[in-house]
Amino acid sequence: MAYNIIQFEDNITIQHNTESESISFFRNMDNRYYVQFIVDIALENDTLDGDTPEWVEEDIATWQLDRYTKATDRLSKFIVADGREEVTEEVVLRQEFDDEVGNMVDITETHVVLEAIDPVPATITITSHSGNIEDSPTTSTIENPLITRDKEERAEAQAVVDATPSKVVDAYNAL
Amino acid sequence: MTVRTTKSEIDVRSKLAELSKPTGVAGNALAEKDTVEQQQEFLGIGRRNQIINGDFSISQRGDYAGGLTMVESTYWIDRWRTRVTNSINGTATHSLNKVRMEVNANATGSIRIDQKIEILNSEHLSYKDMTLSALVRSNSTNARLAVYHQGWDTRNTQSSGDGQWERLTLTFNTGSLSVGNEFSIQIGLDGVSSANVALYDGEYMEVKEVQLEFGTTASPFERRTFGEELALCQRYYVMLAAGADYDERYAGGSSHIIGTMHKWNTTNTFVFTDLPVSMRNSNNMTLKVPAPTSNAFAFKSAGYTATGNGLSLDGDSSNRSIRLNTAITNSSWPLGCSGWVRCNQTSAYCAIDCEL
Q: Which residue has the higher pLDDT, A33 or B36?
């Protein structure tokens, strides 16, 4: 059922009726019901009685930008099935005079910025028991659940990135 | 010049006897602590449990003895949510001081309960050693305690799965936590870092006495009185009034009053009521009343009664006192007319949700 906005003087309340319950709340992006309202309107899961006010459009844009930022950040993380190579950088500790060159030269040290992470095993073996003491346990090999979860989260993040309006992407790139 | 000083005599034998007083292992351990804070932590005294409703004694939203179909991120008994991944068919049941989660069909995923911890400032909880403990009984080794603090902590503690009560403990460091971050404890049939696991029909997990405390040792469960626990819960959810279908301890009962009403104009009548405790955040409150098709409430003034349930939370509300708005009116009521609002049906309720 549709959302509706109730205004008395300068106070605004959003009300939503379901088959079992009626809820009402204020405009606040920390309130999970208000966030759900923004999500429902943005994704057209539900409707709003009357015209959509400008402040609702602003909050939808804020939510989309936040979602796009989180999705982009998730995709930038390493793939657990591939692991990660070590990343290092050269840090200048001081300068010393080099007699051979006849100049001051940098004395550097290699710092590890990101430690290498090994790929997780591609599969795992699980043992199942039927519950009947006469039956032997059976074993099966399945994809490592950590890889499955990583794939699911990446796919979800990619779907968010793909569905984000260009004006939101432009706003993100301008940050 | 000679200076003569005198000193009172002491009984050397009695002093030596004091040194030989029996001291147990615990006594020595206490004496070895550097600060009073460490001694208090060691003794397990003071307000320790950071979990609210850790004994599952408060359930303002309703009675779940008959079982609740578990739905992702849904609050049920006070401060606790049911969590489900991969649409697992699970049931959560609440009986006196105990929660039971049960799988109803073979599938891969997880079912659990969780509680979010409110972070009021970053200093209180950041980079602290904490210990989570709970009494657990399960027929699955996937029954485990885990924590989420800005991501899943890979540390977790598993049940033996032998169907006997056992106290599981999990010690971890909270890392960096700021206001707005999620810090939650997770208990259920789940994989490491909440990776999906194979769950089988009939697998269950029962939980009692959940405690989260500072330090690296799990101390005995801290029991609070019903009134104390209810007040702590009401910071996040409060049942203001409810009909006879609800528990008397949580404002349930027939004809219970919600607050006083005042007719402002022909389309706005306001209802005022005080909250029993200061709620978490006045901007984050949500009013919950039954579906609009019912006549849940009676508005009574000047000898006339109007019924309905079109109540909405209105501005000017604070975390101590709220104003509700309604268009329900009676033409015989003059402007400025005062009266009261009460539950009109056994299934009526009026609650404020201010959960994290």
A: A33
pLDDT band at B139 (very low <50, low <70, confident <90, very high): very high
What is the distance, to the nearest Å, from the Cα of residue B235 to the centroid of all Cα atoms in its chain?
Answer: 9
pLDDT tens digit sequence for B246-286: 999 999 988 899 999 999 999 999 999 999 999 999 999 99
A116 CB contacts (<8 Å, ≥6 apart)? A83, A84, A85, A86
Helices first, then strands: H and E counts in chain A? 4, 7
Residue B272's nearest CA partner among B230, B233, B311 is B311
Q: Check B292 against A22: CB less than 8 A apart.
A: yes
Distance from CA of A23 to the nearest CA of B (A): 5
Predicted pLDDT of residue A131: 62
Q: What is the mean pLDDT of chain A?
A: 90
B46, B94, B117, B132, B215 from B220: Cα distances, Å? 12, 23, 21, 12, 13
| Averaged pLDDT of chain B | 92
- Residue A25 contacts B, CB cutoff 8 Å: yes
Residues 6+ apart with CB under 8 A from B275: B234, B238, B240, B319, B320, B321, B322, B352
Cβ–Cβ gap B287/A6 under 8 Å = no
Which residue of A1, A3, A6, A130 to mutate against B (max B Cβ within 10 Å)?
Answer: A6
One-letter amino acid at A20 equals S
> Does A97 contact B at CB distance below 8 Å?
no
Sign of the C-alpha dihedral computed for residues A164, A70, A42 and A54 taken in this order: negative
**pLDDT-above-70 percentage for chain B:** 99
**How many CA atoms, within 13 angstroms, populate the side-chain half-sphere of residue B19?**
5
Q: How many CB atoms lie within 10 A of CB A10?
A: 6
Tokens of B211: 């405690």
B202: chain A residues, CB-CB within 8 Å: 131
Place of tokens 């936590």: B177
Which of A24, A117, A139, A152 would best serve as a mutation to test chain B binding (most B beta carbons within 10 A)?
A24
- What pLDDT is recorded for position B178? 93
Please check whether residue B99 is in contact with residue B113, taking contact to mean a CB–CB distance below 8 angstroms: yes
A25 and B313: CB-CB below 8 Å?
A: yes
If you count residue pairs, one on A and one on B, with CB atoms under 8 Å apart, how many are there? 87
From A146's Cα to the closest Cα of chain B, the distance in A is: 6
Write down the ipTM of this complex.
Answer: 0.82
Comparing A105-114, B109-118, B276-285, the range with the smallest average pLDDT is A105-114
Q: In 3-state terms, what secondary structure has residue B37?
A: helix
Identity of the residue in A11, A20, A149 whose CB atom sits nearest the CB atom of B195? A149
